[in-house]
Specification:
single chain, 336 residues, alpha+beta, 5-stranded antiparallel beta sheet, 12 helices
Length: 336
């Protein structure tokens, strides 16, 4: 089997662009003048060696890497899209505010609301269940509210473009806008699905704390913060497992809530946005000026498309500018 056939790709939407992880990390951003700027980062990971094979630990390290890279590419995309580069002080302040808001909305607030009811205070499993439901509702409301912001809506469109580009790659087609356009905006390995999985995993883990006796409010609050790495690592392993077994109908049914949530965090992209996502993907695979074909097992696309229809009805950094006008399109040279 050729090396490229083993490659797992993924990424995230950024401001007016997309970041992709393949052989390397590449982020493509469209400037206001129409040019696409691409910057490559070395795929330097924390989860290497024995840690890469250690369940739960690898999930925490992968999430740390994602956070680290995510901050860098968001800063780059803000600079290129004329939003202005953030200083290190601004980045640290924004990170602390984001973490603080997340703890407030998804840990403290659900805990406070659940503690109001006497029946939940006397039953740890019921407490965890109600708390998890409240957390899920807050998450849905939060995503729905921010989706009304025009700039966030564009990011959600790039999110959809990222998924379409990944599907095109995974289904062995040439990386063209025409091929990518037909695919769904939902993907089972999406980080949005991970959010829903963490809600479910947290219900189970917090319920198990009842084995050690009934906890008071402050003990519960402390546990919600301390156990974040445990929940994240467990959720990562669960999503990793389901992504490998999408041919199983039961596993696909488990993955559906995460796909439903993606209906809020993705939107149908324009062709220009698809072009940006495909540019990032090509760069991450070292195929900037080539098209290619791969024989890769279909990762459950037909089932996700059917579900979407049902719902609707590495050293240093380098930078280059690519302006894809009609006459500038590279020749087709399939990678076999």
């Amino acid at each position: 089997m050729r090396e490229n056939e083993k490659m797992h790709v993924g990424g995230q939407a950024v401001i007016e662009g997309v970041m992709m992880k393949g052989k390397k990390i590449s982020v493509a951003v469209r400037k206001k003048n129409g040019e696409i700027v691409v910057r490559d980062y070395p795929a330097k990971l924390t989860a290497t060696g024995i840690w890469k094979k250690t369940p739960f630990i690898r999930g925490i390290l992968v999430l740390w890497d994602s956070l680290n890279v995510g901050i860098r590419v968001l800063n780059f995309s803000a600079e290129v899209s004329d939003e202005g580069e953030m200083s290190k002080k601004d980045i640290i302040l924004s990170l602390f505010l984001a973490v603080g808001l997340a703890i407030l909305l998804f840990s403290i607030l659900p805990l406070l609301l659940t503690s109001i009811f006497k029946i939940t205070r006397e039953n740890d499993f019921l407490f965890s269940l109600v708390e998890g439901i409240i957390r899920a509702v807050i998450l849905l409301v939060y995503i729905k509210i921010i989706s009304l912001i025009p700039d966030v809506k564009r990011i959600f469109q790039y999110h959809g473009a990222e998924h379409k580009a990944v599907y095109t790659y995974e289904n062995g087609e040439d990386l063209t806008v025409e091929n990518a356009r037909k695919y769904p905006t939902l993907h089972p390995r999406c980080g949005t699905s991970f959010l829903m999985i963490t809600v479910v995993v947290s219900i189970v883990i917090f319920a198990l704390l009842g084995v050690f006796g009934r906890l008071n409010f402050w003990e519960r609050l402390l546990s919600r913060i301390i156990l974040i790495p445990v929940i994240a690592g467990s959720a990562y392993e669960f999503q990793r497992f389901t992504a490998k077994h999408l041919d199983n109908r039961f596993i696909r049914s488990i993955a559906l809530p995460g796909l439903w949530l993606q209906k809020l965090t993705t939107a149908e992209p324009t062709d220009d946005q698809l072009e940006v996502a495909l540019t990032a993907l090509k760069s991450s695979l070292g195929l900037e000026w080539e098209t290619f074909h791969m024989d890769v097992e279909n990762p459950g696309y037909e089932d996700i498309q059917e579900e979407e229809n049902r719902i609707d009805s590495p050293q240093g950094e380098s930078e280059k500018v690519e302006n894809y006008g009609e006459k500038d399109q590279p020749e087709e040279n399939p990678f076999l």
